[in-house]
Amino acid sequence: MVQPYRIEVERAMKKYYATLSEKDQRRYAAVEAMKLGLGGKSYIARILGCSEKTVHNGLVELGHLPDEPEYDAAIRKPGGGRKRYDEHYPNIDEQFLSVLKEHTAGDPMDEKVVWTDLTPDEISKLLEQDHRVKVSKSVIKKLLQKHNYRRRKAQKKKTMKSVAHRDEQFRNIQAQVAEFKAQGNPIISFDTKEKEALGVVSRTLCKWRNNRFHFFPARRDFWASLGGGGGQGVSAAALEARHRARLQCR
Questions:
Q1: What is the helix (H) or strand (E) element at residue 239, kind and residue range?
Q2: Cβ atoms 39, 2 nearer than 8 A
Q3: Sign of CA dihedral 207, 213, 217, 221
Q4: According to the model, what pLDDT value does residue 240 have?
Q5: Which residues contact 146 (CB under 8 A, 6 or more apart)?
Q6: CA 222 to CA 7: how far, in whole Å?
Q7: What is the C-alpha separation between 231 and 129, in angstroms, rounded?
Q8: Radius of gyration of the chain (CA)
Q9: Which portions of the chain are predicted below pLDDT 70?
Q10: CB count, 10 Å around CB of 100?
């Protein structure tokens, strides 16, 4: 049965223990446990707030000390501590970019400016899900900076209207992109805007001009693939007629 120290002695021991380095804490706990004998490790671990394994490791270190030891400033063994994320996951850059492949957009005027619609927390979850790579959000932020991803701030906080099946059109586009890519076909990305009247300077009359546009009837499947949003297709003939009508009124 271990005879406990007085309360004021226990408090002094705990205060002194907190001022020591990791190495000295282990060895001090080991010396105190040796004084008490049987049951000393659990008692000292409870007083100092450490684990019994820490006390045991200190006893092992004391047993390996030479008879005339010299001062050693090193607290940890060489190579100790947690490894860097790029050492633990050597292919993390390729895995990171593969996760962002379908979630990356950029500035059409500057190819170096790119961004993603995923948050660091979402990227971390996808890395763990797809590649079994478990890293913190701070590592994700370092990877984003490393690969020149910029932070963007959305100006519009709340949409003014709700569009049914909004995501379906983008899923349809993504599926067609994957299909064309698998067949080795080129993919062109472009953006369009709605036309609006220019007030007093709007052109109400049609003007004829020499049209250099050539329509390819053989590619009706291509024109049909462009029609409609959210997977709602438009026939190639209707799309061709609509396009010719627009050309005549320019």
A1: helix 236-248
A2: yes
A3: negative
A4: 63
A5: 93
A6: 85
A7: 29
A8: 35
A9: 1, 72-81, 153-161, 191-250
A10: 20
* C-alpha separations of 154 from 43, 112, 157, 158, 192 in Å: 58, 20, 7, 10, 20
142 burial via Cβ count (<10 Å: 0-12, 13-18, 19+): middle
Return d(Cα 142, Cα 163) in angstroms, integer: 36
**pTM for this entry:** 0.40
Tokens representing 193 are 């805007």
Give the C-alpha separation, 28 to 196, whole Å.
81
pLDDT value of residue 17: 92
pLDDT at 16: 93
Residue 224: HSE in the Cβ half-sphere, 13 Å Cα cutoff: 9
pLDDT of residue 228: 44
> Token pair 């026939």 is at which residue?
235
Residue carrying the six token digits 């979402």: 122
Phi/psi of residue 110, nearest 5 degrees: -150, 105
What's the pLDDT at 101? Answer: 87
